[in-house]
Amino acid sequence: MPTTRHLLTAALLLAAGVSTSQAAALLQISGGTDLAIPSSNDVLHPLDGNTRNRGILSTTADNVTLEFFYWGSESGYRNTLHAGGFSHTEIDNVAIGGGPVAFPGFGSPLFSYAQAGAGAIQLSFTSSGFSGTLLPGSPDLIKSIAFGYLTAAGKLSATPTDIALITLDDGGAGPDDNHDDYVGFVRATAVPAPAAAWLFGSALLGLAAAIRKRG
């Protein structure tokens, strides 16, 4: 029969497991090469740091909700982001406000969906300026997608976070590497696991019962 100490140990282990899973970053950028944001990038140049060009953006856990947001653009083409069966076409051909923009904060997402299994996020771009579909990790030397980790305050981070910048260079006038032809970001949120919550609650109830009997 479980002792109070056993029940307490089980509860603490479950709590530690839940805490660790919540603390781990839900997004990961793998592969690719670092790409500095140049001062000529009218949408993003207030940021200080690098993005990861031709990398892959993935979730690190099962059952993650992904919310997609729009930041701005400076392009002559109409570029469209596709993800999870949804799509969004840029709404302005210059950066919001006609100049540098600050992180817009979280309003209503463009769209959101749940990704059941950990792994690569299936997103892509199409455009009025190039034929076909551009995917992350594309070897194309002109058109490419770059990602970056963002903090909740909208600053680029060198370590993984739950928010990722999504930027496109559509190669309209050549390989300018501005990556401001479409700029958005995605926020990942973990869906609570019912099984873990049930086990944790059961352990606490057992612990409370044992303490009452001993009291």
Tell me about this structure:
With 215 residues, the chain is α+β, with helices and mostly antiparallel strands. It has helices spanning 4-23, 194-214, and strands at residues 27-30, 33-36, 50-53, 56-59, 64-72, 79-83, 86-89, 111-115, 119-120, 123-127, 144-150, 156-157, 163-169, 182-190. Helices cover 19% and strands 33% of the residues. Residues 6-21, 95-101 and 196-200 have low confidence and may be disordered.
Mean pLDDT: 79
- The beta-strand count equals 14
Radius of gyration: 22 Å
The main sheet comes to: 8 strands, antiparallel
Low-confidence residue ranges? 6-21, 95-101, 196-200
Q: Please write the string of helix (H) and strand (E) elements.
A: HEEEEEEEEEEEEEEH
| Fraction in beta strands | 25-35%
What form results from the Cα inertia axes? globular
